[in-house]
Design a protein that fits this description.
Blueprint: H1 10-27, E1 40-41, H2 49-61, H3 66-78, E2 82-83, H4 85-99, H5 109-146, H6 158-169
Helix pairs in contact: 1-2, 2-3, 4-5, 5-6
Amino acid sequence: MHTDDSTLHPKTIVSAYGDLLALINEQDKPEALKLLPGALPESVLPYPQATIRHALAIYLLHQDYIEERDIIEDAYMYLDNFIPDEEYEKFRILQISMETKEHPDYASEDMSRDLSYTMVLLKARTGKMKKRRKHSSHELKSLRRIIGLPGNIYPHSEEEAEEMLELDLNL
């Protein structure tokens, strides 16, 4: 991940993020979690999330083509799928154990505590992702209004849009 991004043009940042998304779609690596639908580790991002989000917003404000704007908005929302690596690894291990049905013997207090902690983390992360997606939706609405587009990203009511996001998160 690049850290010195002060001299980079938003197009460079958006391009690097787009390349990552294309790579993820082609190779399924890293593996997106099913337990937390679509979650990926932050470390694969070419720049910090806030930098990418800012670059996407700038790029969106200067985009004239509807198809391009739709792609940028999707990429903006998809950015919410990237979670801290430590959490991704814990959830991946839990997912693998659930898929292979190789549940360890949780008789030991330590193992039971680890599972409980992971489940609490999973619930908290799900809530954070849901809240962040809602926030991203509002940010995109504001950006759309700035450039003179209808505020609704989805051609549905706000309640239906929330329901669609929830279904997206598989909650």
